[in-house]
Amino acid sequence: MEFQFQFDWQAAIHAIPFLAKGIPYTLMISFGGLAIGFVLGILFGLLSINKSWFLRWPAIAYIEIFRGTPILVQVLFIFYGLPDLIGGPIDPLTAGIAAIALNSGAYISEVVRGGVQSIDKGQTEAGLSLGLSRTQTFWSIIWPQAFRRMIPPLGNQGIVSIKDTSLFSVIGVGELVRQGQVYIANTFTAFEVYFVVALMYLAITLTLSLLLRLLERRGVASV
Amino acid sequence: MTQIVKMKGMNKYFGKLHVLKDIDLTVEQGEVVVIIGASGSGKSTLIRCVNGLEEYESGVLEVDNQKLAPKGGNQQALSEIRKEVGMVFQQFNLFPHLTVRKNIMLAPMKVKKASQVVANATAERLLDRVGIGNQADKYPSQLSGGQQQRVAIARALAMEPRLMLFDEPTSALDPEMIGEVLDVMRELAKEGMTMMVVTHEMGFAREVADRVIYIHEGQIVEEGRPDDVFDNPQNERTQAFLSRVLAH
């Protein structure tokens, strides 16, 4: 008997509406998580370069813990472990958003630290010598320049986090991969379905890449 | 005469390195003091202490009647002093994300709470004064080095300082642009600005300085009127230094 495989276009097209139901969840988890992660990243990134060790030390601990453990373990811990501690269940969407937020926050902290530290110290000296306070110098001189340098690595983190949400099928949140698994269980069309799922991720990440390139170009024009 | 800067027995260390040794120095209002010396002699560190960009370890430092305590002392005095003391850096240190106009408007608006209209008028007046009134809406990177340094001077002047510090303001410039920056500084001196200038431009020092100070390994070894220091240096280290820099 000869082995023959034919890509079943019909199956792929039929799967689209069901799979597409996962897109809002994927977007919600990734962008919700990233928005919180961005705030955490600014906060802990700046704390990690603070002069006083009692602010710096906890921030570095946070960064190292969430960079040094797998995001899969983090989300399992939040979804299955934390309820034991707080005495009630956590819904999978919240757990997913929390995992992306805490994980991306750790990486974004490092992006923030690197961006701020890359600005020449002459900039700070110029600000201080003009009579600006340290806070004014930071927010009106250092941060705008640092932020521009942070855009490419932030975009990178955005794409990584979007793809990380695919792991959250393990906690049963109905994102793209989960939808795919459910669909395949009934149709046995794994090749076609995962192919479509991959294309859907690609559509999301390419859109983000494009937006970031536009943002970068606008930023570069004024430096 | 009013003393704007008073240093008495001032010492500064970088770790174990003793970079300023028992510095006694006063600067009167309206005086132009030029500080010369080999690189690494401590001359930049000396003027960076005046506005607290460097801390010192012991001695007395008073700027504009405010005591600036050793080791980073009191923040209050420091911020008062910085409002009264302008500084121009070797590397310009303009803000690359802001236009020339905004570079100059920033400090008056943030520190003196000047209105946008007032700050803008100040910026335009100062840019005219340093000869680049038509470049206000360019970004620093679009200007030549000489123009950038003139913007930096205008930026410092916008705070109406009582004292201007110049830290090797022409050392990073192409030779053909040094003149235009020195011209602005010469004008400023003529108008009565109190200035402390670290420079290697001996011609400028001789012409503009009221007093020249030679620093060697963190110590003031010679101090006097430019003609005396340049033509008749008393200390043999000054003689050696001058013969090296004036020979070519």
From TrEMBL, chain A:
Q: Name one GO molecular function term.
A: transmembrane transporter activity
The residues that cross the membrane are 27-47, 59-82, 193-215
Q: Give the UniProt subcellular location, in the record's own words.
A: Cell inner membrane; Cell membrane
BP GO terms, sorted: amino acid transport
Q: Which UniProt keywords apply?
A: Amino-acid transport, Cell membrane, Membrane, Transmembrane, Transmembrane helix, Transport
Enumerate the spans annotated as ABC transmembrane type-1 domain. 23-212
| NCBIfam families the record matches | HEQRo_perm_3TM
- What is the name attached to this protein's record? Putative glutamine transport system permease protein GlnP
TrEMBL record, chain B:
Alphabetically, the GO molecular function entries are: ABC-type amino acid transporter activity; ATP binding; ATP hydrolysis activity
Q: How is this protein situated with respect to the membrane? A: Peripheral membrane protein
Q: Which residues form the ABC transporter domain?
A: 5-242
- Which Gene3D superfamilies would you find in this protein's record? P-loop containing nucleotide triphosphate hydrolases
What Pfam families does the annotation carry? Answer: ABC_tran (PF00005)
Gene Ontology CC: plasma membrane
Q: Which residues form a coiled coil?
A: none
- Please tell me whether the keyword Membrane is annotated for this protein: yes
What are the entry keywords? Amino-acid transport, ATP-binding, Cell inner membrane, Cell membrane, Membrane, Nucleotide-binding, Transport
Task: Please classify the protein's predominant subcellular localization into one broad category.
Answer: membrane
Compartment(s) of residence: Cell inner membrane
Task: Spell out the family assignment given in the record's similarity comment.
Answer: Belongs to the ABC transporter superfamily.
* The protein, known as: Glutamate transport ATP-binding protein
Q: From what organism does this protein derive?
A: Marinobacter excellens LAMA 842
